[in-house]
Prior knowledge:
alpha+beta, 66 residues, 2 strands, elongated, single chain, two-stranded antiparallel ribbon
Amino acid sequence: MTYILAGAMEVRFKPWCIGVLVCLIFSALGVGLGVPLALSAVGPTTHQERLEAVRRILRDVPLIDG
Length: 66
């Protein structure tokens, strides 16, 4: 058991409760940072731009050597 003294009150936390709390905090942090980064990704927006990007990549780095 982990004890936290808060003034005159003593609060008990079980180890699994602290683990769940840490997981929730990291999950919230990941979502809070990941979603804005994923939505602000800069890249080709139209179908034609995507096709041109794929052709350029395949021209520079072909999938088959030889």
